Amino acid sequence: YKKMSHFPTDFLWGASSAAYQIEGAYREDGKGLSVWDKFVRIPGKTFKGTNGDVAVDHYHRFKEDVALMKEQGLKAYRFSIAWTRIFPEGKGQVNQKGINFYNRLIDELIANRIEPVVTLYHWDLPQALQDEYGGWESREIVTDFTNYAKTCFDAFGDRVNYWVSLNEQNVFISHGYQMESHPPAVNDEKRMYAANHIANLANASAIKTFHDGHYQGGIGPSFAYSPGYAVNGDPKNQVAATNYEDYAAHFWMDVYVYGRYPKMIYKWLTERGTAPVITEADRALLIAGKPDFMGLNYYQTQTIAANPLVGGVGLAAENNTGKKGTSSESGVPGMFKTTNNEFLKQTDWDWNIDPEGLRIALRRIDSRYDLPVLITENGLGAYDKLEEDHQIHDDYRIYFINEHIKAIKEAISDGVKVIGYTTWSFTDLLSWSNGYQKRYGFVYIDRDEESAKELKRYRKDSFYWYQKVIQENGQYL
Ligand code: BG6
User: Fold this and answer.
1) Alphabetically, which GO biological process terms does the record hold (predicted)?
2) Among this protein's residues, is 449 annotated catalytic?
3) Mutate which of 432, 433, 437, 438 to test ligand 1's pocket (most atoms within 8 Å of Cβ)?
């Protein structure tokens, strides 16, 4: 019924990472400690107590890693800057050695004709700011984050065209202030929505500063969007799915783009006494900080059913962002719950595998926000096996990414403007609480929870496969 489009010739085929998950060198060259440096040391918080002290040692091996990117033919590489390398205490004196490191990395990428996509905040908040004023819970962070962002725009903005402001605000806020699985490991709804609102202000302020400064290129947040489907045509479940979209998606993306919260959720929070305080100045700032593109981190969809209150109680939320959910049920009493989808299979970590859902995510973002989309994450976390001959036959990952690229092509053919696709991830890396066993990369890193070994890099089968996809600009999938 429609003509299939080609990928644009300037499509950004790429891959991603984040500072804490790859760099290591956690105390080198003046770096300050982040909340993750501290959190991982709390017993029981991460798989086998793993941490990012060494990670995959990208800090010392970035040239080798960029050489591999060049060999694979990547057009773009998304990475994050560790705030604590630029400002060890989160504010105050700039640490020149931190600036130097990212200058070297960016220059190396550009020398190899790889477009840097730079994330300002991928969860590694300076511990000093957490200690001083409670991090995201204080409005002081708006100033400090903006100053940090501006320092990065000034230092690197002559060579960077794509900036990501906050990575997955919905995830770091819900995991940090509800599920207790990220720092500061709090479970308090009111504090969660207050911190979230402040993060919205910081995001808007950084974006406004970027626009006011007339730097080259564009900026946007990366949102972890897991589209919701009603489990069936029962209107009750349709209402629940509508609730889910407002609660788990529009609650963030509407604020980014339109500077306002969805009415239904805001009213519900007000009745519960957990709505954030919004001033007139806040509203003006939120409207002024409109992104140039929407960054999309897509892993899975959620299937939604009604979750009626029985005697005032309903199925409660272990995870209601939709992002990190498993196929097991969780939800918000009275509003919705997630449920199993008989049409979908799951990954080794029980995440739904749903390539078509990516097309749906792109279509929904396009029609509601009318912004170009940069897919900043998508990939498969799996156990990989290093064979004796150092090969890694990750045909499951090839299949996964291949199907998702097909879905992107469909969305482009539907008329959605997709700027690029940076998969998660380039090399294997530390999967936050899951240790090193949950692998996402095109490049295998020979290390495990017990030992960093020699941290040798090996190309997986998917490395060569994606190399070919890029060469052919996604034409033969
Ligand atoms: C996203 C993050 O949540 O998904 C990444 O931005 C993360 O940092 C990725 O690693 C995969 O999640 P996980 O828990 O499997 O590592």
Assistant:
1) carbohydrate catabolic process
2) no
3) 432
What pLDDT score does 365 carry? 98
Q: Which residues 6+ apart lie within 8 Å of 133 measured at CB?
A: 140, 141
Nearest to 371 by CA among 171, 219, 476, 224: 219
310: confidence class by pLDDT, cuts 50, 70, 90: confident
In this predicted structure, the answer to whether residue 200 has a pLDDT above a threshold of 70 is: yes
ipTM rounded to 2 decimals: 0.98
Name the residue at shortest CA distance from atom 7 of ligand 1.
431
Substitution candidate for ligand 1 out of 117, 120, 168 with most atoms within 8 A of CB = 168
Residue nearest to atom 12 of ligand 1 (CA): 431
Cβ contacts of 464 within 8 Å, gap of 6 or more: none
DSSP code, position 275: P
237: Cβ contacts below 8 Å, ≥ 6 apart: 230, 231, 304, 305, 306
Atom of ligand 1 nearest to the CA of 429: 10
Residue 402 pLDDT class (50, 70, 90 cuts): very high
Q: CA 88 → CA 22, 151, 396, distances in Å?
A: 18, 13, 41
Residues 6+ apart with CB under 8 A from 65: 58, 426, 427, 443, 457
CB 26 within 8 A of CB 37: yes
Q: Which residue has the tokens 């004196």?
A: 93
Give me the pLDDT at residue 306, please: 96
